[in-house]
């Protein structure tokens, strides 16, 4: 029996126990269409901003016992019109029509304001559709009308118009709007079949951590996450700002309390009872340095952060990940005396460090809201997600140690 995790409120339920929403459109064998009704549960979940009118929607129903969906649809018992829309039992949010048919993996993207979260998701999805997708024989598709619209807008702004994303809304509402993608990877024993996974991303604003209502939703989201990507903006680290300002570039950001955000993530997971061995949390944590294009002058010439990893054979190479891990870890230790790494080592049992540039080059001087003239030319943007997918057993890994699982190198 497939369990479905609601990507909006994170409640878990068996797919067969989910109600359906009538389309309220008429056209069935019974002449009258069902009247829409006020969905007070959904209205309360969405908060006052949506307005009472928007909460008037098709009525919910449970299909008759033993009735199987045909073509993903079941008929409404009152108007007989088939509907594909399944709904969360707890918050009454509609799921995209094929969301319930695949396993889902929730990826939490966490970081201070302006760390580069929205740019990261947009460029990452673009790369999964093109270069990376091609290498791993992967395909991604936005699921549901909301994600499709936002995905199209973000992609058009960044790739066609050269505009960086607007700052993400800091209201609690932002957490109600996950980005849902269907990721299709080769699967099955001989790699002949296809395995579909629903990827749920939250592009939350840093300030979502404040405010009690936002906080509850945020912790629910972290606790449900199968993997966390914690983004660290080197330009918000005081020592990096100092080093770089000596050579001149204008730095647009004020330092943010990135250490505190890292500490908050662990505290919130613990408050939800998530624990692993020895008191350390088990959720895999990818710590990723963003905007590495800006710190190029501080990197050694042979640094693995200068170029993309090669995955020619559709396999992740552990040796490459470890080289990046060591490099970023030692950079961070040099920059803050090791405070962040020590804290994360104490709190998490599965941590890997990454570094990427979503743009490949800084935005034009004096115009941080514009993409570089050639458009985004990302470096290593895919590494954190690919590692998290591999940790879930969704991608093959070439291990460096013959005693460990996977393909030996
Ligand atoms: N140099 C460089 N700058 C970047 C990169 N990615 C993002 N930026 C800069 O960082 C700014 C913020 O990026 P966003 O993606 O909006 O960051 P965010 O974390 O979503 O920001 P909020 O939603 O406001 O919290 C952009 O306007 C760019 O100026 C990158 O790869 N390199
Ligand atoms: Mg944003
Ligand atoms: Zn829900
Ligand atoms: Zn009906």
What does this entry look like structurally?
Residues 105-294 form the Double-GTPase domain. Pfam families: DO-GTPase2 (PF19993). This protein has helices spanning 40-46, 117-129, 131-135, 144-160, 212-224, 238-246, 258-271, 318-336, 339-347, 383-391; strands at residues 3-5, 12-14, 20-21, 37-38, 56-57, 60-61, 74-75, 82-83, 103-111, 139-142, 179-187, 193-203, 227-232, 285-289, 316-317, 351-355, 397-399, 407-408. It is of the alpha/beta class and 409 residues long. It folds into 2 domains: 3-99, no CATH class; 102-408, Rossmann fold (3-Layer(aba) Sandwich). A hairpin with a 5-residue loop joins strand 11 and strand 12. The radius of gyration is 23 Å and the shape is elongated. The structure holds guanosine-5'-triphosphate (GTP), magnesium ion and zinc ion (2 copies). The site of magnesium ion has 6 residues, from helix 2.
Residue runs with pLDDT of under 50 for 5 or more positions: 403-409
Number of helices: 10
Radius of gyration: 23 Å
Fourth CATH level, the homologous superfamily of the largest domain: P-loop containing nucleotide triphosphate hydrolases
Helix content: 25-40%
Work out the strand percent.
15-25%
The major sheet is characterized as:
7 strands, mixed
**Whole-number tally of structural domains:** 2
Lateral arrangement of strands in the main beta sheet: 10-11-12-9-13-14-16
Succession of helices and strands: EEEEHEEEEEHHEHEEHEHHEEHHEHEE
Bound molecules: guanosine-5'-triphosphate, magnesium ion, zinc ion
Question: What is the class of the largest domain in the CATH system?
Answer: Alpha Beta
CATH topology of the largest domain: Rossmann fold
According to DSSP, the number of beta strands is: 18
Q: Structural class given helices, strands, pairing? A: alpha/beta
What is the overall silhouette? elongated
Protein name: Double-GTPase 2 domain-containing protein
Domain Double-GTPase: 105-294
């Amino acid at each position: 029996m497939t369990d479905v995790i609601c990507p909006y409120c994170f409640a878990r339920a068996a797919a067969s126990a989910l109600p359906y929403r009538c389309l309220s459109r008429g056209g069935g064998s019974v002449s009258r269409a069902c009247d829409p009704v006020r969905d007070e549960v959904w209205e309360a979940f969405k908060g006052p901003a949506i307005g009472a009118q928007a909460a008037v929607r098709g009525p919910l129903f449970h299909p008759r016992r033993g009735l199987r969906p045909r073509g993903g649809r079941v008929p409404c018992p009152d108007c007989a019109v088939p509907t594909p829309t399944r709904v969360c039992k707890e918050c009454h949010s509609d799921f995209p029509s094929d969301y319930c048919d695949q396993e889902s993996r929730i990826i939490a993207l966490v970081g201070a304001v302006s760390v580069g979260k929205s740019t990261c998701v947009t460029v990452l999805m673009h790369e999964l559709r093109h270069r990376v997708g091609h290498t791993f024989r992967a395909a991604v598709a936005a699921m549901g009308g909301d994600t499709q619209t936002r995905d199209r807008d973000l992609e058009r702004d960044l790739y066609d118009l050269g505009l960086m994303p607007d700052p993400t809304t800091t209201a609690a509402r932002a957490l109600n709007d996950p980005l849902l993608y269907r990721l299709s990877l080769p699967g099955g024993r001989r790699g002949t079949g296809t395995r579909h996974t629903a990827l749920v991303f939250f592009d939350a604003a840093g300030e979502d951590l404040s405010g009690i209502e936002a906080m509850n939703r945020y912790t629910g989201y972290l606790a449900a996450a199968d993997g966390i990507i914690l983004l660290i903006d080197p330009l918000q680290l005081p020592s990096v700002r100092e080093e770089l300002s000596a050579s001149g570039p204008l730095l647009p950001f004020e330092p943010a309390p990135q250490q505190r955000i890292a500490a908050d993530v662990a505290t919130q997971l613990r408050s939800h009872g998530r624990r692993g061995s020895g008191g350390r949390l088990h959720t895999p944590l990818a710590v990723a340095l963003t905007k590495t294009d800006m710190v190029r002058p501080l990197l050694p010439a042979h640094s693995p952060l200068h170029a993309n990893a090669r995955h020619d054979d559709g396999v992740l190479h552990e040796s490459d990940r470890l080289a990046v891990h060591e490099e970023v870890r030692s950079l961070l230790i040099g920059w803050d005396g090791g405070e962040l790494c020590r804290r994360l080592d104490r709190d998490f049992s599965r941590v890997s460090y990454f570094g990427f540039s979503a743009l490949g080059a800084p935005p034009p001087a004096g115009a941080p809201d514009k993409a570089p003239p050639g458009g985004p030319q990302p470096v290593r943007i895919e590494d954190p997600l690919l590692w998290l997918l591999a940790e879930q057993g969704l991608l093959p890994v070439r291990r460096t140690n013959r005693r460990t699982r996977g393909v030996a190198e």
